[in-house]
Design a protein that fits this description.
It is built from 9 helices and 8 strands. It folds into 2 domains: about 5-15 and about 90-220, 3-Layer(aba) Sandwich (Rossmann fold), CATH 3.40.50.1000; about 15-85. The termini are close together. It has helices at about 15-30, 40-45, 50-60, 65-85, 95-105, 115-125, 150-160, 175-180, 215-220, and strands at about 5, 15, 90, 110, 135, 165-170, 185-190, 205. Helix 3 packs across helix 4. A 6-stranded parallel beta sheet has the order 5-4-1-6-7-8, with helices on both faces. It has a two-stranded antiparallel sheet with strand order 2-3. With about 220 residues, it is α/β, with parallel strands linked by helices. The chain is globular and about 55 Å long.
Length: about 220
C-alpha cells in the first residue's frame, strides 16, 4: 500500500500570516525598521521558506544582510511565533476530507516539515487535526532536514510504510528535491504563493485542489 507524506506550511495549511506577524514582531523587538507585508506574494512565499528567510528578506530591504542579526533574530521570531501559531492560519479547502479518504482506503499518512517539531505539533493540535496523521517529522527530529531524504523516509517508516512505495505532497523546490533524492514521486500544490509556477520544477503531478487528490494520485501510482 502506498504511503502519502505531506509537507505542512503551504501544503496542508496557509501559515504565512502568522509567520509574517512573528517576523515583524522580531523586527520590533530588535528595533529594526523592516516590515513584511502579509498580502504581498513575495513575502508570503518567503514566509513558507522559514524564519531565517523572512529575516533576510526584511534586513535586505534596509541594506546589506547581516547574518549575525539573522542569528540573533531567529530565536526572537520563534518565541513570537510560538505565542500566536494559529491566529491567521487556515487549512486549505478540502484537505482533511482528502486525508480521511486516504486513511479509509488504507493509505498511511504522515507529515514531514522543516518547521521545528514542537511548533509543528502545537500548530496541528491547535487546528484540531494532529490525530489524523500517523507521524510528524520536523526540522529537528533528525540531525538533517529536507531536502535530505532521511526525514521523509523516517516519516514513512513511522507510519509503517515502505519508503520505496510513497509519495511526497509539497509546495516548493525543497519538497521536489526531497522526493527526487528519495526516489519517489512528488505532487506540488498550485494554490500556494508560487501558484502554477511550481510546474517549472517538473514534479510528477500538480494539485489544484484537494478534491482532485484521489485522481492525481491514481495517475502516478502504478498499482
Amino acid at each position: 500500500m502506498q504511503t502519502v507524506i505531506f509537507d505542512l506550511d503551504g501544503t496542508l495549511a496557509d501559515t504565512s500570516g502568522d509567520l509574517l506577524a512573528a517576523a515583524n514582531a522580531a523586527f520590533d523587538a530588535l528595533g529594526h525598521p523592516a516590515r513584511l507585508d502579509p498580502v504581498a506574494a513575495e513575502d508570503q512565499a518567503t514566509a513558507l521558506r522559514g524564519g531565517r528567510a523572512m529575516l533576510r528578506l526584511g534586513f535586505g530591504r534596509h541594506g546589506a544582510i547581516d547574518e549575525a542579526a539573522v542569528d540573533a533574530g531567529y530565536p526572537v521570531l520563534l518565541e513570537a511565533y510560538a505565542q500566536a501559531l494559529s491566529v491567521h492560519t487556515t487549512l486549505y479547502p478540502g484537505v482533511m476530507d482528502a486525508v480521511e479518504r486516504l486513511r479509509v482506503a488504507g493509505h498511511p499518512v504522515g507529515i514531514c516539515t522543516n518547521k521545528p517539531s514542537g511548533l509543528a505539533e502545537s500548530l496541528m493540535r491547535d487546528l484540531g487535526v494532529r490525530d489524523a496523521f500517523g507521524a510528524l517529522v520536523g526540522a529537528d527530529t533528525l540531525p538533517v532536514r529536507k531536502p535530505d531524504p532521511a526525514p521523509f523516509r523516517h516519516a514513512v517508516e513511522l507510519v509503517g510504510g515502505d519508503p520505496a512505495r510513497a509519495v511526497l505532497i509539497g509546495d516548493t523546490e525543497t519538497d521536489r528535491e526531497t522526493a527526487r533524492a528519495a526516489g519517489v514521486p512528488s505532487v506540488l500544490v498550485t494554490f500556494g504563493p508560487l501558484g502554477r509556477g511550481v510546474e517549472a520544477l517538473s514534479p510528477e503531478a500538480l494539485l489544484d485542489h484537494y478534491d482532485d487528490l484521489d485522481r492525481v494520485l491514481s495517475g502516478i501510482w502504478t498499482d
